[in-house]
Amino acid sequence: MQHSPSPSPVKVDYLALSDHARGMFETDDELDALDALLERSFAGAGAHLTGIISDDRRLSARDLARYLEGTRHFVVATVTKSGEPRCSAVDGLFLHGQLWFTTSGDAVKAKHLEERSALSAAHIVGDDVGVFIHGHARVVRGGPGEADALRHYWTELYDSSPEEWVATPQDSRCVEVMATSMFTYAFNRERFEAMVAEVAHPPGEASPT
């Protein structure tokens, strides 16, 4: 939803999206590191937050990785030169314990992040689920180089890469959110598991027996 206009519409291969959504990319070590980050984050949180997100409402790293399979929409906030916040929506992918999103090099948020890396990201579904991430951005430019190892994550979902949604491949930006704190929330465990199952087995698809 953050893609810049292109001469032809981006085709979404829903079968590929469904297949992609069944896989988790995180290793055990990455999940352990994410659990440690969550523990540190809640340990340093204020009484108001911990009063709402009690221990039984928190998601573990493995819970989070299962839930964030495939595309999830996040609102990302960046900062202007004068310190004013600006937010916009992105399609987020959770890869190896980190949130990633793409944008164009001429997008305001890309310009902000290349000058000031601080950002926050939030994903909320009513009162059911919340994921809140604070940290710094690492921006990877399109074209030959590191983008070569990232491109396939998006082509598996959209049947095209972020480099095809902008004027030239070098105009593409892949942004990794390097989290310094993260908070997770699920009001009801049964409802949360149902939401995870909806991703693993989209409506209309039979569950394995």
- H/E element sequence: HHHHEEEHEEHEH
Structural class: alpha+beta
Q: What is the total tally of β strands?
A: 6
- Return the domain count: 1
Residue fraction in strands: 25-35%
- Output the CATH homologous superfamily: Electron Transport, Fmn-binding Protein, Chain A
Commentary on this structure:
By secondary structure, this protein is of the alpha+beta class. Helices cover 33% and strands 30% of the residues. It has a single domain, classed as Electron Transport, Fmn-binding Protein, Chain A (Pnp Oxidase, Chain A, Roll). The chain is built from seven helices and six strands. A hairpin with a 5-residue loop joins strand 1 and strand 2. Helix 1 (14-21) packs across helix 6. It is globular, with a radius of gyration of 17 Å.
